């Protein structure tokens, strides 16, 4: 089997994945800043790492997955000046900052559950790690890598580079270019060098979120929390750090500088970045006004949407592209994804309902078991190739053909043989449900799903009306199914229902 390789942003190439102490894997992912509802773009990034977490677990690693909640320190504009995003929202809404944090953390959890993302092993918050952050600032000052200025503390890029650091190595930014980009920003006078970044910020009394420190009342810089929390729970060097592409610079570049500064070695072995969800080629973001909330997507209640799409349709849509490619949102692509997802789930339903029954006198044709084993192998190979879910889905559709052949009896259980049948069932179910996290959805309205007993009862009525040749009523039952997004499959050997593709 091809070994697992992952694209490492640091080396700009795919590398064989070798954990520091297998079977354990440490995975850290930058979580949301909880000042607003998560949008679909954010969801794409979290989905990428959910899939990675699922796959690593599936192949036997014991993963400690840490995904933080940013509840202080992330300033409007992502730089060192300006208001705290949460503090600003608290003022606007006349609420306590922690009420804002709680409201949007709850929303974040609800959305992830709706899209079937697994919870992380640890979900630490920045405000819950104030002591660790203050200690880290002290240590960086002691090591000559940071300095105080007017009650704020800045990381000293020049001192860091003199001591063996390479600021810019993750994002590939050249220091001179950075200087040109940064020079015009305001609030630089406190800094020795415009590139230096805040690890502690002095806060005036009107600032809602402030803590006592050796440098006066203030709050930690945005980049520091991830360094402190990843180190605390995963060690000074750990396996994988993930986040969206837009976090490469400055956030992750600064995390490397802080981690290296504190511990004299790089904090992370593999840096992974998920590409952006775009709308008409533009990054989906709240500030550009082109973002959808997951709830709008499900209801279809948004000017850019032709109709509503279910969470699993969206999950399938996202998994159909490789995480390092941009993914452009469009109604056409989502409609195609809806069809694809339903085809796959119809296959899953059929397969789950099947049990092996040998046909008398039919010899096993080994061709089928070979093919199934090859597809299973190909599924592993696709995911081992930098988590290529797009290719993996293609192989699942190849397996789906076998399932449909079994259903229509073009292929019999006897020809397949019990071992091959079990392999088909395990492979299809495991990769769809455990690895890709796709599952069957409730029928009918997401808010008021139709009970399964209702569907079964209506199907019984259909059979009854058909036997009595009451064709008007038969048609009425068909219409009922259609309204639920289902179709009746009236076959010679069986009457059943399926999701309408
Ligand atoms: P934030 O709450 O702004 O810190 O973002 C949370 C996560 O969502 C980060 O990892 C971002 O990189 C990611 N993100 C933001 N916008 C997009 C987008 N349009 N597509 C994919 N990921 C995004
Ligand atoms: Zn982070």
Automatic annotation (TrEMBL):
Subunit structure: Monomer.
Cofactor binding notes: Binds 1 zinc ion per subunit.
Protein name per UniProt: Cysteine--tRNA ligase
Organism (species): Fibrella aestuarina BUZ 2
Lineage start: Bacteria, Pseudomonadati, Bacteroidota, Cytophagia, Cytophagales
Gene designation per UniProt: cysS
Cofactor: Zn(2+)
Domain named Cysteinyl-tRNA synthetase class Ia DALR: residues: 378-442
Residues making up the signal peptide according to the UniProt record: none
PANTHER family assigned: CYSTEINE--TRNA LIGASE, CYTOPLASMIC (PTHR10890:SF3), CYSTEINYL-TRNA SYNTHETASE (PTHR10890)
One GO MF term: zinc ion binding
Locus of motif 'HIGH' region: 32-42
């Amino acid at each position: 089997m091809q070994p697992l390789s992952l694209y490492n942003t640091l080396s700009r190439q795919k590398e064989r994945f070798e954990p520091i102490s297998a079977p354990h894997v440490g995975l850290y992912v930058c979580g949301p800043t909880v000042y607003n509802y998560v949008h679909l773009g954010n969801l794409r990034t979290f989905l990428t790492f959910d899939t990675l977490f699922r796959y690593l677990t599936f192949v036997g690693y014991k993963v400690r997955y840490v995904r933080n909640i940013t509840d202080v320190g992330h300033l409007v504009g992502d730089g060192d000046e300006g208001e705290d995003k949460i503090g600003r929202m608290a003022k606007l809404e006349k609420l306590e900052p922690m009420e804002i944090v709680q409201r949007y953390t709850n929303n974040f959890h609800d959305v992830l559950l709706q899209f079937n993302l697994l919870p992380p092993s640890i979900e630490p918050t920045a405000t819950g790690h104030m002591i660790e952050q203050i200690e880290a600032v002290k240590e960086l000052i002691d090591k000559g890598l940071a300095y105080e200025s007017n009650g704020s503390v800045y990381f000293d890029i020049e001192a860091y580079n003199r001591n063996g650091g390479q600021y810019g190595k993750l994002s590939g930014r050249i220091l001179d270019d950075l200087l040109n980009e940064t020079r015009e920003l305001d609030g630089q006078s406190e800094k020795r060098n415009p590139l230096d970044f805040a690890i502690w910020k002095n806060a005036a009394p009107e600032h809602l979120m402030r803590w006592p420190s050796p440098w006066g009342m203030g709050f930690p810089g945005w980049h520091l929390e991830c360094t402190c929390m990843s180190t605390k729970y995963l060690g000074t060097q750990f396996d994988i750090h993930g986040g969206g592409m837009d976090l490469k610079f400055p956030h992750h570049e600064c995390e490397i500088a802080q981690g290296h500064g504190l511990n004299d070695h790089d904090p992370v072995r593999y840096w992974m970045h998920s590409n952006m969800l775009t709308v008409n080629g533009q990054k989906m973001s709240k500030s550009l006004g082109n973002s959808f909330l997951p709830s709008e997507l499900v209801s279809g209640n948004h000017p850019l949407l032709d109709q509503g799409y279910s969470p699993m349709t969206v999950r399938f849509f996202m998994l159909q592209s490789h995480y390092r490619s941009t993914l452009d949102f469009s109604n056409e692509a989502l409609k195609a994804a809806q069809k694809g997802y339903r085809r796959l789930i119809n296959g899953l339903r059929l397969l789950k309902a099947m049990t092996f029954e040998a046909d008398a006198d039919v010899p096993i044709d080994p061709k089928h078991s070979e093919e199934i084993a090859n597809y299973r192998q190909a599924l592993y190979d696709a995911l081992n190739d930098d988590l290529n879910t797009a290719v993996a889905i293609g192989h699942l559709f190849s397996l789906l053909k076998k399932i449909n052949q079994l259903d229509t009896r073009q292929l019999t259980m006897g020809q397949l043989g019990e071992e091959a049948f079990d392999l088909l069932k395990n492979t299809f179910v495991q990769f769809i449900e455990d690895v890709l996290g796709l599952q069957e959805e409730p029928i009918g309205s997401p808010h008021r799903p139709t009970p399964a007993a209702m569907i079964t009862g209506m199907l019984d009525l259909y059979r009854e009306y058909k036997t009595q040749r009451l064709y008007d009523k038969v048609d009425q039952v068909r219409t009922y199914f259609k309204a639920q997004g289902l179709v009746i499959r009236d076959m010679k050997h069986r009457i059943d229902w399926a999701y309408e593709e």
